[in-house]
Amino acid sequence: MLTRLTTQLLATATTLLTVGMFLGNMLLIYMGIVPIIFLIISVAIQQPTKVEFTKPPEDIHVWVDQTIDINRPMKVSGGQGIVVVGEEIPELFELIEGSNFKVFWKGTEDTEESINYKVRPTRRGQYHFNRLMWETRHVHGISTNIKGEATLRQTTYVRPRPFNVMKIRQHKTFSKMIMPSEALIKLGIPTTDFKEIRDYNYGDPYKKINWKASARAASISDKPRVNTYEMEGKKVVWIYLNTARRMALGRETSNSLEYAVQAVLGLTKFYLSRNCNVGFNIFSDDLMLKTTTTSGGRLTLPDLVPDSQLDKAEENLEVVNEKDESFIIPDAGKRQELIINRRLLDIELGSSKYSLKQTVNKCRGHILGTNPLFIIVTSLNPAKKQQLINGLLEISKYTRRVKTSRPTTLIINILGYGLTVNDDIDEIAAEILKARDIGEEGGIRGLGSAVINWDPSKQSIAEVLLSQVSRIR
User: Fold this and answer.
1) DSSP conformation letters of 98-145
2) How do the domains of the chain map onto residue ranges?
3) Is this structure's pTM higher than 0.70?
4) Which has the least CB within 10 A, 45, 248, 397, 466?
5) What is the pLDDT of residues 435-459, one digit of tens each?
6) For residues 17 and 26, is the Cβ–Cβ distance under 8 A?
7) Where are the alpha helices (DSSP H) in 346-423?
8) CATH number at 48-159
9) Could you tell me whether strands 125-138 and 146-159 are parallel, antiparallel, or unpaired per DSSP bridges?
């Protein structure tokens, strides 16, 4: 299709020729012939007509903040002219090197070019490189640009980085990490897999005493140290993640929920490496009045039940349908880690509409008879304390206390106020709020739960959990 420039040249040539012949002026006639000659030459020159891209690999698996090298080779055929190529980058991806937009000249022969750039995902999730767009332009601009696009269908799975489990599995450590109670009682056949060194308890065989470790830590009040080994038996860990609105505390790419997901992934890796069966589920202490969806079918954050009506609303929703929200039943092995990892990619605020009590009740068929360790990853808040207590009371129905000082429930309390600090005043306010939330631990610890406070702005989850391990001196 001809452009406006072509119409203007034709109009100019016609006007000059008409006026030149009317006045008998050869100069005007020659000037009218020049645009016509220019158009004839331009029509003989064709612009590039086709841009073909090499199909990329279907899936990419990377960690958060890992650099991704993107290379899009292409072949341009047809005439000659200017070629413009651009690619859409998924949201929350940062361009760190190169460019996803390229302009180059195509000569008379077919040309092979490529777009090369580097991006870095800033948040976990599932993203798509959908399309490459291209456009060719005539060298003289006498015809409209030819546009096209190529569908890529390349999916990128961005996973949060887990902490290094091997650091916590050092043999010469006195471990305070909580393990499922089935691994602590003397049932089953001991294996040759070393687990930890712990204090001597009444009834331990003398042959299990580690005399060297006991000598290094010897004092009047210290107990001897005992080697323990993994037992053959079923050890189960249930991990519950809170997806309430307040877990958005922080920035879009580094908020409490993102760090909570990292903690879940790290804990999953740790307990699977200790031959435990790990299950996973989500909950929310924001009870909801209704669920709304947009015209595109995407879930929006629903209205919330006022805090004064939480107990009554929770009782009204006591009966839950297991099909409403899927959960991952306990299992072991690398495959279970991949399943939980894939589930974590889709976790968003408001992903669950059930409280902790309802969620535990929903999983009861897989909990009965296993006496598991429960791990709750959340952010303590005075207004939601009663809901957490209700959930802990429900958990107590499925656990039995054994003769050990270790609790059956571990709460990872994420203190995300430091993620919003911009100046000294914000930092003071964050410290006050942290002190308030930590003050809520008293009634919770009394229910047989251990609380680990984690400030993501000051330390990593690996440092927090390593603080549960003390070296024998």
Assistant:
1) E-SEEEEEE-SS-EEEEEEEEEEE-S-EEEEEEEEEEEEEESS--BPP
2) 4-44, 48-159, 165-187+233-471
3) no
4) 397
5) 877 776 767 777 778 888 888 888 8
6) no
7) 356-362, 364-367, 385-396
8) 2.60.40.10
9) antiparallel
